[in-house]
Amino acid sequence: MQDFQVVRARALLEHAREIVTPDQVQAAVRHVADVLNERFRQPDNTTYPLVLGVMGGAVVFTGTLLPQLDFPLEFDYIHVSRYGDDDRGGQVVWKVIPRQNVAGRTIVVLDDILDEGETLAHVKQRLLDMGAAEVIIAVFADKDIGRRKPIVADITGLTLPNAFVVGFGMDVYGYWRNLPGLWQIRQQDLKPAEPETEYPIPDVKAPGTGLG
Ligand SMILES: O=P(O)(O)OC[C@H]1O[C@H](OP(=O)(O)OP(=O)(O)O)[C@H](O)[C@@H]1O
Ligand SMILES: Nc1nc2[nH]cnc2c(=O)[nH]1
Asked: Which residues belong to any copy of the Phosphoribosyltransferase domain (predicted)?
């Protein structure tokens, strides 16, 4: 079983293409840090933001970014998943909800990727419903999907083409969150879409045919 995992993980990466180098990744994180520092480091700033990393994908982004922030902050995480081990999004599932009282506070939400935007739109709305005064969305990457999204990030590290990527916290079927750069997975290595459930068409006879 473990052999299978290793072989499958390696095969996926063998056919993948690096589209963002580790240096470019670090520059993107630096950019997000610079914008946040500019926003909160001013001497007259009295806001003590609650920074929430969206687990699991944001774990690497969060761990890289936090030591680059130079203002007082409180950190915690929330855990939300929409893709599970799949390469297509489904329902937003909350695994850990915000534990602090967010009412009246400025919240900075950190996530690895803004793709269709469903996850972060949902997270932002929930925080606002809980009384947050302000929700700032900072993403490592924003994917150019060629259509409108339900949310726009306030701070973006870099923009990606419309392809499924892994690395820097992002996984394919659970693999390769640990890569320091971003890799595009070959399209044919992604699972085909689930076929629509097909229901048998009932054999309806016209009335009066004498059948059935
Ligand atoms: O913009 P969307 O289309 O909603 O997709 C973005 C979300 O997808 C990923 O999470 P995922 O559900 O894969 O869980 P993970 O963080 O555990 O990988 C990623 O971390 C974002 O939270
Ligand atoms: N790994 C990964 N997770 C995602 N979640 C939403 N989009 C993506 C993506 O391109 N790659």
From this structure: 26-171
